Amino acid sequence: MTQMSQEEIVSNTKTVLQGLEALRVEHLTLISNLTEGSKKDPDKSEIVMKNIENIELGLGEAQVIVVLASHLQNIEAEKQKLRTQVRRLCQENAWLRDELANTQQKLQSSEQTVAQLEEEKKHLEFMASVKKYDDNQENEEQQEKSRSDPVVELFPEDESEERHTMSPTPPNQFANHANAGYEIPARLRTLHNLVIQYASQGRYEVAVPLCKQALEDLERTSGHDHPDVATMLNILALVYRDQNKYKEAANLLNDALAIREKTLGENHPAVAATLNNLAVLYGKRGKYKDAEPLCKRALEIRENVLGKNHPDVAKQLNNLALLCQNQTKYEEVEMYYQRALEIYEMKLGPDDPNVAKTKNNLASCYLKQGKYKEAEILYKQVLTRAHEREFGAINGENKPIWQVAEEREENKSKNRENTPYGEYGGWHKAAKVDSPTVTTTLKNLGALYRRQGKYEAADTLEDCALRSKKEALDLVKQSKVAKILGVSDENRRQRMKDSDSYDEEGKRSQK
């Protein structure tokens, strides 16, 4: 007897089912005739009834077989679906492995190139480290540039990013902060980290598809209205913003905002973070009026959740002040900056870098209004505090740079050959003082002095700013030269190798 397939068994069962149903109808007719006719036969009626029961039993078993066959078909379909998903995941895994292999090959190629050039670089770097720079010529060129247009130095382009731009939440920090309370699924964590890595490297052609794949996977497994989906929408929006695709970024941020308001509540910190990013996006597009209410709402949420004196509230106040400054609402700008300054000083202390930055921002607001005296006071406070941290309490022998500059301005008529500032102090020799904020303050106060006609004082501050910026680049080189010149001849080659190793590490840290 040949083995029957599942389809043949089901087909034959249905045929038998039809035959049993017809036989059941015939028996019902027969039993009716035996019980209602003139000639009743109890024995035949009992036999017919037993046959009917057997027929119904057969019908039930046939129906069970049909239902079981249908169930097996559904199981087979689900099995095929799972196999398809497994194949897709295997393809994704293979794609990621290929991408990793390509990256490793590029890394190996770069390392080989560095190794080939290392010997040539040794001699050139050593010669550059012992070379003397013509400081006086560069100082004169810098002074000539400053005299040409002193107002430009009040708002230097190279420092504007630190002092006058809003502070969006960085993608990696934003993702960690936004995910508080729930974890990204393990199978998506790799994609999530790759998006952040590729975006930071500017490889948007890889980051965007990866992020979209993560979003598609999340929406399929968890639904569109899920906090993890909002997190990935935020990250993709930040990638689009870096590509200047502001319209796409705005749509994603608005979608993420709606999801978080629905799932986390309207007063959740993640909602405030999304509002802040959306406000920053509008600010970049010049839509300050649209950005201001978003920034105010983010401020209100952070005040309610974190308290009115939290440092994150101060950051939001700085962003709000910048939006108002771009709309020339200077009274509000002063209020927001002053409140942010109070929070930083209260919670983080007077030596926190945010205190000096906020004072610079407030001074910038004063400058735009022509309040030069108020701006001058703030600049002097920043420089005085930096001096005290580095050189101790101020006295007659230990004066901050701005006092030295003003004294030189007063005595310029008595002594036309003023001594260079290097003999008055050592700011440009102290690495701790050499920070972008302090250097910016030196340049801005120098430009303010120049506007007031105090050219000698302006030259002193600008010379110090130039030395501070340059000294940071020379300190590492000078230390290497000292090591090289101090070794014996017989150990010089080994020590130079060590010095080269240190130089490579230092370059990495600078980069």
Automatic annotation (TrEMBL):
Residues 132-177, 488-511 are annotated as: Disordered. One of its GO terms (biological process) is microtubule-based movement. It is found in: Cytoplasm, Cytoskeleton. Keywords: Coiled coil, Cytoplasm, Cytoskeleton, Microtubule, Motor protein, Repeat, TPR repeat. TPR repeats lie at residues 230-263, 272-305. It comes from the Eukaryota. GO terms for molecular function: kinesin binding. Residues 65-127 form a coiled coil. One of its GO terms (cellular component) is microtubule. Pfam families: TPR_10 (PF13374), TPR_12 (PF13424). Residues 489-511 have a biased composition (Basic and acidic residues). Belongs to the kinesin light chain family. Oligomeric complex composed of two heavy chains and two light chains. This is Kinesin light chain. It comes from Aedes aegypti.
